Amino acid sequence: MKDWDDMRIFLSVARAESLSGAAKVLRVDPATVSRRIARLEAEADAVLFVKSPQGYVPTEAGARLIAHAEAAERAMEAAREDLQGRAEGLTGTIRLGAPDGCATYLLPVVTARIVRANPGLDIQVVALPRVFNLSRREADMAIGVSRPTAGRLRIQKIADYTLSLAASHDYLRDCPPIRTRADLREHPIVGYIPDMIFDSELDYLAEAGLSHVDFASNSVPVQIAWLRAGAGVGVIHDFALPDAPGLDRVLPEDFRLTRAFWLIRHADDARVARLNRFAEALTEEMRAEIAERARA
After folding, report:
1. Which one of 74, 89, 169, 266 is most buried, counting C-beta atoms within 10 A?
2. How far is it, in rounded angstroms, from Cα 71 to Cα 133?
3. Domain boundary among 84, 117, 140
């Protein structure tokens, strides 16, 4: 185990749970990954992975090695940053996972400002309607809509945000008036696919007393596109309204939800100064952007 590159390949296989997945991340061919893992196992005199229907699963020895490999990874990252120095600003690549509503309507503006201040920084935003697995390094950090209660994580509240009922101006002009929540039952409803709601914080319609969804998608931009097309009434993030012309709030005095965004990181990353600095900038910029859009 003299070669850090072998350890890097080992970590990639453990996280991707496949040779091909690791090869794609590392930009090498799977045969190379297989040879390097075999060499590492020979040096360690231990089997590090077993192949299962779910993919490559670390053995007990492999699981023990993961902790040491991740410690080496953090040390290499800290050394790189120390050599480059803080004066250059943030550099390298940071991958950020986020729900698609946040990723579509907040992060493009926020991350563009951060990169303008740090030209050497590359940001990757992975927008998926699900919870990210930071242990598998699907992302360097993630934004969530609820606070995790398990796992070795570092969690920080970013900011509260609000959501409202909305529909297109044309729809509201041509359809029966909505004066109370009870009137909503006479209108087509836009919302999430019920069995694809990955977090209870996203079950907005239940709080409006609604259970049936006429136009359902697991994508926030799709839901907003339906609302703008006059499909019906749905719940929209207030911070998305400036990017959705033609939509009006419905029952603004009676219905308003408050949720929060949380920044979620692996606990061990607290010692990586570069990620700490990015997390600080991201939190500051997101708070400012949400506040600015609330005033729009």
Report:
1. 266
2. 18
3. 84
